[in-house]
Amino acid sequence: MTKSRVAVLGTLSDLHRQSVAYDLKVLARLVRQIEPDLLCAEIGRDHWETRDLARMPVEYREALIPVCKRSDIVLVPVAGGEADALAVPRGGQWHRLRSAIVGLLNLQLRLMQRLAGTPEAINSGTFGAACTWMCGLIAWVGGPEARRAWAAANDRLLQNVLTAVRRDPGRRVLVTVDCRRRHLLDRRLRTFGEIEVVEFYQL
Amino acid sequence: MTLSVLVVGPTLVREGLRALLAQEEDFAVGAEAEYDFSDPSSPDVIVCCASAPEGVRELRVRWPQANVLVVADLAPAAASRLGNLGVIGLFPLTAEPDELIWAVRSVAQGRLTLHPTVLRALVAHLAEIEDAPLPPPVQLTPRERDVLRYLTLGASDKDIAQQLYLSVRTAQSHLVHLYHKLGVHSRTEAALAAIHAGWFDETSADKNPDQFSNSTEADSRHSALVGARLD
Known about the structure:
The complex is a heterodimer of chains A (203) and B (231).
Chain A: E1 4-11, H1 24-34, E2 38-41, H2 45-49, H3 58-69, E3 74-77, H4 95-116, H5 119-122, H6 125-142, H7 144-167, E4 172-178, H8 179-189, E5 195-198
Parallel strand pairs in A: 1-4, 1-5, 2-3, 2-4
Helix pairs in contact in A: 1-3, 4-6, 6-7, 6-8, 7-8
Chain B: E1 3-8, H1 11-21, E2 27-31, E3 45-48, H2 53-62, E4 67-71, H3 76-84, E5 89-91, H4 97-108, E6 113-114, H5 116-131, H6 142-152, H7 157-164, H8 168-182, H9 187-197, H10 217-230
């Protein structure tokens, strides 16, 4: 059976609103150039099927969905849960302190994203290692509930991507996710034999 | 009240019928050759001795208000076709003169008037059709069924792909397989075949359970597509 070629592209979510080098125009142009058969997008299926654009992240609303509409790219919603799964659960022990530390770490993460700037840098191994370490730290500070929620959301996202790929094998699939998940997902997808994971510019 | 009757057909038969019908005092009988076609008034009854559907269709177009009685020896299938063209009277050439005159009066009143021999032949023909073995069922995969369902809604390749979360190329590939299985050459023909077979009638969703193996996610999103396309 022909292997599906899959690339995972990290996006900046809310940071796309700001004046960063990796802005919405760059993202839209990238996806237009890659022109995958399927675009697995980190948006909820319910929001997509009801066209509830207001509840979708800005990069989908203003860049990726318009690109899909103007091309033969088929969008498949694959979100595994709420976007902010790394948030500290309310009412837990040391909630305020944990929230403050997580807030600081998130600020640091956003600073890293801003400094990385370009799509190549955001999707690079170095940034990935730093991002994975930082997200792990945030999840650890957030407590067991936050860790479970983060892991569960990532698991569901992975399963949804696998379902989409297996439903239509042999196709070119671009998965766009918040860059905090990109490296986790990329690493786990590489463990499946029916998938050939490549960089976004190789797809 | 006088009934205007126009007799159409091959000369010998036409003249014979004309002579027979002209014996009735209340019939004003004319033959095709002498009929004043500029006369806007339509004959009440057209007695047609030719069974060719083209000729009957032409008469119906020219005088849509007239009731048509065909007098000919017809095969049941031909009789059935003439019925579809709006002919309401069918009599064989072996009919008795009295029967024919009665038939003209009956047809003039717009009644379906069939000679008993014609009626028997038609009933037998219909029974044969009912008993005829059905063509082998079309074996569609669940995915092909989904694609066909959206096709009947007028969906484009992209619409189908998006609804089923498949690539456009895969949707097109399913379409090609569908055309082959249904023996058609276009999406319109495929959609018509499905509609004609009643596969996606709301009331007969499970009409042919053997032909379709299961219901898939497309069923639940059927209405979503309609809504989206209406936008």
